[in-house]
Amino acid sequence: MTLDEDRPPPEWLGDVSTGVDAWTKRAAAPPPEDTTAQGPFETVAAQPPQEPPDADPEAVARKILLDQLTGQARSRQELADKLAKKHVPDEIAGRLLDRFEEVGLVDDDAFARSWIASRGPAGAGGKGLARRALAQELRRKGVDDETAREALDEIDPTDEEETARALVRKKLRSLQRVDDATATRRLVGMLARKGYGSGMSFAVVRDELAAAGRESADQHA
């Protein structure tokens, strides 16, 4: 066989490594992928991740209020304090609270009555608090005195006395082993902590001790 002189010389002629590549068909490693490439003919610098836009302060405040009111009534002052702790601007907080009042979601009158119904005399919660204790709690909740007074005036004095008697009878069961003077002191103290006046407290305790065959401290005097 004779070498064809008209055939062009191979590309690798004179370069051994190129010749070896040509004979062995060894593929060159592909270049590293350019993560900044936007197309076959254009590259741009990689952009840092964009921060999400700030949330609408009013929408955030509205969600806070709705979360606070879910399953539980709250006074306007309680809600205002919560918004302040979350750094909601006063102007936004006041406007939203006004709007919530307009639609009945915030109602201090209804809140006061609901609070008394759950914690006052004949309340289902078992607290049995008297007017004085309820008034203090409503004040701490931010309910103004006039609104609280109107709600408290609806308490039936008979319910208050009957609740005091029920509390004394229940507590008396745990005082079987103490003397009458000690029992009287503890029972009157218990009623005082729940807001009952001293006159009613001593009268109720005396009656309930007598009904149980015991004597109150004032009967010993």
Written overview of the protein:
By secondary structure, the protein is mostly helical. The chain has 3 domains: 50 residues, Arc Repressor Mutant, subunit A (Orthogonal Bundle), CATH 1.10.10; 49 residues, Orthogonal Bundle (Arc Repressor Mutant, subunit A); 65 residues. 56% of the residues lie in helices and 2% in strands. The chain is built from 11 helices and 2 strands; from the N terminus they run H-E-E-H-H-H-H-H-H-H-H-H-H. It has a two-stranded antiparallel sheet with strand order 1-2. A hairpin with a 2-residue loop joins strand 1 and strand 2. Helix 8 crosses helix 10 and helix 9 crosses helix 10. It is elongated, with a radius of gyration of 42 Å.
Give me the secondary-structure category. Answer: mainly alpha
- Output mean pLDDT: 82
Radius of gyration: 42 Å
Strand runs, count: 2
**What spatial form do the alpha-carbon principal axes imply?**
elongated
Query: Can you list the strand order of the major beta sheet?
Result: 1-2
Strand content of the residues, in percent?
under 5%
**Portion in helices:** 55-70%
Number of domains: 3
Question: Brief description of this entry?
Answer:
By secondary structure, the chain is mainly α. Helix content is 56%, strand content 2%.
Features:
221 residues; mainly alpha; Arc Repressor Mutant, subunit A; two-stranded antiparallel sheet; 11 helices; 2% strand
SSE blueprint and pairings:
Layout: H1 16-24, E1 37-39, E2 42-43, H2 57-69, H3 76-85, H4 90-102, H5 108-119, H6 131-140, H7 145-152, H8 157-172, H9 180-193, H10 198-211, H11 217-220
Antiparallel strand pairs: 1-2
